Amino acid sequence: MPVIYAPQAIDGHPNSGIAEFCVKAATHTKYVLERLEELKKLALELETGHYKGIPVQPGVVVNLRNTDLEGNAVSEYPIKAEDLAGLMRYLGFRNIPFDHSIGMLGVYENMFYPTDNTHVDDQLGYYRQREWRLVGSDIAINGHRLTRELAEDERKTIETIDSEFWTREFTVSGAAVSRSALAQIYSPQTSSALGDIVEKILVPSSAEAAVRKIFDGNIQVM
Predict the structure, then answer these.
(1) Where do runs of H (alpha helix) occur along the chain?
(2) Among 84, 177, 188, 210, which one has the highest count of C-beta atoms within 10 angstroms of its own C-beta?
(3) Looking at the whole model, is its pTM more than 0.70?
Protein backbone atom coordinates (compact mmCIF):
# COMPACT_ATOMS: atom_id res chain seq x y z
CA MET A 1 0.00 0.00 0.00
CA PRO A 2 1.35 3.48 -0.75
CA VAL A 3 2.23 5.68 2.20
CA ILE A 4 0.64 9.09 2.79
CA TYR A 5 3.07 11.93 3.40
CA ALA A 6 1.81 14.16 6.23
CA PRO A 7 3.52 17.54 6.63
CA GLN A 8 4.05 18.69 10.20
CA ALA A 9 2.41 21.88 11.45
CA ILE A 10 4.17 25.23 11.09
CA ASP A 11 3.82 27.75 13.92
CA GLY A 12 1.58 30.65 12.95
CA HIS A 13 -0.06 28.79 10.06
CA PRO A 14 -3.16 26.96 11.38
CA ASN A 15 -4.04 25.32 8.05
CA SER A 16 -0.65 23.59 7.96
CA GLY A 17 -1.74 21.44 10.91
CA ILE A 18 -4.59 19.69 9.09
CA ALA A 19 -2.55 16.58 8.21
CA GLU A 20 -1.15 16.27 11.74
CA PHE A 21 -4.65 16.70 13.16
CA CYS A 22 -5.97 13.88 10.94
CA VAL A 23 -3.23 11.49 12.05
CA LYS A 24 -3.79 12.26 15.74
CA ALA A 25 -7.58 12.04 15.33
CA ALA A 26 -7.26 8.51 13.92
CA THR A 27 -5.11 7.53 16.89
CA HIS A 28 -7.57 8.93 19.44
CA THR A 29 -10.54 7.34 17.66
CA LYS A 30 -8.77 3.99 17.78
CA TYR A 31 -8.21 4.47 21.52
CA VAL A 32 -11.96 5.04 22.08
CA LEU A 33 -12.83 1.90 20.13
CA GLU A 34 -10.26 -0.12 22.08
CA ARG A 35 -11.96 0.90 25.35
CA LEU A 36 -15.35 -0.11 23.92
CA GLU A 37 -13.96 -3.46 22.84
CA GLU A 38 -12.61 -4.01 26.37
CA LEU A 39 -16.02 -3.19 27.87
CA LYS A 40 -17.78 -5.53 25.43
CA LYS A 41 -15.50 -8.44 26.29
CA LEU A 42 -15.90 -7.76 30.00
CA ALA A 43 -19.70 -7.57 29.83
CA LEU A 44 -20.06 -10.74 27.75
CA GLU A 45 -17.70 -12.65 30.02
CA LEU A 46 -19.64 -11.60 33.14
CA GLU A 47 -22.84 -12.77 31.47
CA THR A 48 -21.49 -16.31 31.58
CA GLY A 49 -21.45 -16.12 35.40
CA HIS A 50 -17.66 -16.18 35.56
CA TYR A 51 -14.79 -13.71 35.43
CA LYS A 52 -11.31 -15.06 34.65
CA GLY A 53 -12.57 -18.49 35.72
CA ILE A 54 -14.00 -17.27 39.05
CA PRO A 55 -17.79 -17.53 39.62
CA VAL A 56 -19.62 -14.21 40.07
CA GLN A 57 -22.97 -13.52 41.67
CA PRO A 58 -26.03 -12.52 39.58
CA GLY A 59 -26.52 -8.75 39.40
CA VAL A 60 -22.80 -8.06 39.78
CA VAL A 61 -21.84 -4.38 39.45
CA VAL A 62 -18.92 -3.16 37.36
CA ASN A 63 -17.18 -0.08 38.76
CA LEU A 64 -15.83 1.96 35.82
CA ARG A 65 -13.06 4.30 36.91
CA ASN A 66 -11.26 7.27 35.31
CA THR A 67 -7.69 7.86 36.49
CA ASP A 68 -5.16 10.65 36.06
CA LEU A 69 -1.65 10.21 34.65
CA GLU A 70 -0.41 9.06 38.09
CA GLY A 71 -3.08 6.37 38.30
CA ASN A 72 -5.22 8.14 40.89
CA ALA A 73 -9.00 7.74 40.56
CA VAL A 74 -10.74 10.98 39.57
CA SER A 75 -14.25 9.58 38.95
CA GLU A 76 -16.14 6.31 39.27
CA TYR A 77 -19.27 5.01 37.55
CA PRO A 78 -20.89 1.82 38.93
CA ILE A 79 -23.05 -0.02 36.40
CA LYS A 80 -24.73 -3.42 36.45
CA ALA A 81 -23.02 -5.97 34.22
CA GLU A 82 -26.31 -6.81 32.53
CA ASP A 83 -26.91 -3.12 31.72
CA LEU A 84 -23.38 -2.83 30.34
CA ALA A 85 -23.94 -5.89 28.13
CA GLY A 86 -27.19 -4.39 26.83
CA LEU A 87 -25.44 -1.11 26.05
CA MET A 88 -22.69 -2.90 24.12
CA ARG A 89 -25.25 -4.84 22.08
CA TYR A 90 -27.10 -1.61 21.32
CA LEU A 91 -23.91 0.10 20.09
CA GLY A 92 -22.92 -2.92 18.01
CA PHE A 93 -26.29 -3.37 16.29
CA ARG A 94 -25.78 -3.33 12.49
CA ASN A 95 -22.33 -1.81 12.98
CA ILE A 96 -18.87 -3.06 12.10
CA PRO A 97 -17.44 -4.92 15.14
CA PHE A 98 -15.18 -2.77 17.30
CA ASP A 99 -12.15 -5.00 16.73
CA HIS A 100 -12.55 -4.69 12.94
CA SER A 101 -12.60 -0.89 13.14
CA ILE A 102 -9.57 -0.96 15.45
CA GLY A 103 -7.69 -3.02 12.86
CA MET A 104 -8.57 -0.65 10.02
CA LEU A 105 -7.48 2.41 12.01
CA GLY A 106 -4.24 0.56 12.73
CA VAL A 107 -3.74 0.29 8.97
CA TYR A 108 -4.24 4.03 8.50
CA GLU A 109 -1.84 4.85 11.34
CA ASN A 110 0.91 2.85 9.64
CA MET A 111 0.29 4.44 6.24
CA PHE A 112 1.33 7.94 7.33
CA TYR A 113 4.89 9.13 6.90
CA PRO A 114 6.35 12.53 7.91
CA THR A 115 7.60 14.80 5.14
CA ASP A 116 10.54 15.97 7.23
CA ASN A 117 13.78 14.12 6.52
CA THR A 118 16.10 14.36 9.53
CA HIS A 119 18.93 12.44 7.80
CA VAL A 120 19.16 14.20 4.42
CA ASP A 121 18.45 17.88 3.92
CA ASP A 122 16.78 17.40 0.55
CA GLN A 123 14.17 20.09 0.04
CA LEU A 124 10.85 18.53 -1.05
CA GLY A 125 12.67 15.25 -1.53
CA TYR A 126 9.68 13.26 -0.27
CA TYR A 127 7.80 14.14 -3.46
CA ARG A 128 10.34 12.09 -5.45
CA GLN A 129 10.04 9.01 -3.25
CA ARG A 130 7.95 6.01 -4.23
CA GLU A 131 7.55 4.23 -0.94
CA TRP A 132 5.11 1.37 -0.43
CA ARG A 133 4.79 -0.74 2.67
CA LEU A 134 3.02 -3.75 4.07
CA VAL A 135 1.26 -2.17 7.04
CA GLY A 136 0.98 -3.87 10.40
CA SER A 137 -2.31 -3.74 12.25
CA ASP A 138 -4.73 -5.76 14.35
CA ILE A 139 -6.64 -7.07 11.32
CA ALA A 140 -7.64 -10.74 11.65
CA ILE A 141 -9.16 -13.15 9.12
CA ASN A 142 -11.20 -16.00 10.58
CA GLY A 143 -9.70 -15.19 13.97
CA HIS A 144 -6.09 -15.32 12.68
CA ARG A 145 -4.07 -12.09 12.88
CA LEU A 146 -2.20 -11.15 9.71
CA THR A 147 0.79 -9.94 11.72
CA ARG A 148 2.32 -10.70 15.10
CA GLU A 149 5.01 -9.25 17.33
CA LEU A 150 8.44 -10.89 17.50
CA ALA A 151 9.21 -13.32 20.30
CA GLU A 152 12.20 -12.50 22.51
CA ASP A 153 14.49 -15.00 20.77
CA GLU A 154 13.46 -13.63 17.36
CA ARG A 155 14.26 -10.10 18.47
CA LYS A 156 17.72 -11.18 19.65
CA THR A 157 18.34 -12.91 16.33
CA ILE A 158 17.64 -9.85 14.16
CA GLU A 159 19.55 -7.60 16.57
CA THR A 160 22.55 -9.88 16.09
CA ILE A 161 22.28 -9.49 12.30
CA ASP A 162 22.41 -5.67 12.44
CA SER A 163 22.63 -4.31 15.97
CA GLU A 164 22.90 -0.64 14.99
CA PHE A 165 19.73 -0.78 12.90
CA TRP A 166 17.50 -2.95 15.12
CA THR A 167 18.44 -1.53 18.52
CA ARG A 168 17.88 2.07 17.49
CA GLU A 169 15.19 3.59 19.72
CA PHE A 170 12.20 5.77 18.84
CA THR A 171 9.79 7.64 21.09
CA VAL A 172 6.34 6.05 20.86
CA SER A 173 3.51 7.30 23.11
CA GLY A 174 6.09 9.02 25.30
CA ALA A 175 8.29 5.93 25.81
CA ALA A 176 11.57 4.87 24.18
CA VAL A 177 11.09 1.69 22.11
CA SER A 178 13.65 -0.16 19.99
CA ARG A 179 13.06 -0.85 16.31
CA SER A 180 13.12 -4.61 17.00
CA ALA A 181 10.27 -4.18 19.51
CA LEU A 182 8.20 -2.39 16.88
CA ALA A 183 8.86 -4.97 14.16
CA GLN A 184 6.16 -7.46 13.19
CA ILE A 185 6.08 -10.75 11.31
CA TYR A 186 3.66 -11.09 8.39
CA SER A 187 1.81 -14.39 8.82
CA PRO A 188 -1.40 -14.49 6.77
CA GLN A 189 -2.04 -18.21 7.31
CA THR A 190 -0.72 -20.60 9.90
CA SER A 191 0.10 -23.17 7.19
CA SER A 192 1.47 -20.84 4.50
CA ALA A 193 5.04 -21.16 3.25
CA LEU A 194 7.27 -18.21 2.36
CA GLY A 195 6.94 -19.03 -1.33
CA ASP A 196 3.16 -18.56 -1.07
CA ILE A 197 3.50 -14.87 -0.21
CA VAL A 198 6.90 -13.84 -1.65
CA GLU A 199 7.45 -13.75 -5.41
CA LYS A 200 11.04 -12.51 -5.60
CA ILE A 201 13.86 -11.27 -3.37
CA LEU A 202 16.29 -8.50 -4.38
CA VAL A 203 19.73 -8.77 -2.79
CA PRO A 204 23.23 -7.34 -3.35
CA SER A 205 25.20 -9.28 -5.98
CA SER A 206 27.67 -10.37 -3.30
CA ALA A 207 24.89 -12.24 -1.47
CA GLU A 208 23.03 -13.61 -4.49
CA ALA A 209 24.62 -17.07 -4.55
CA ALA A 210 24.10 -17.64 -0.83
CA VAL A 211 20.46 -16.56 -0.96
CA ARG A 212 19.76 -18.74 -4.01
CA LYS A 213 21.13 -21.70 -2.08
CA ILE A 214 18.78 -21.02 0.85
CA PHE A 215 15.61 -20.91 -1.25
CA ASP A 216 16.69 -23.57 -3.76
CA GLY A 217 14.67 -22.17 -6.68
CA ASN A 218 11.38 -21.83 -4.78
CA ILE A 219 11.64 -18.02 -4.85
CA GLN A 220 13.20 -15.88 -7.59
CA VAL A 221 16.39 -14.19 -6.39
CA MET A 222 17.72 -11.13 -8.20
Answers:
(1) 18-47, 81-92, 98-111, 152-161, 163-166, 179-182, 194-197, 208-215
(2) 84
(3) no
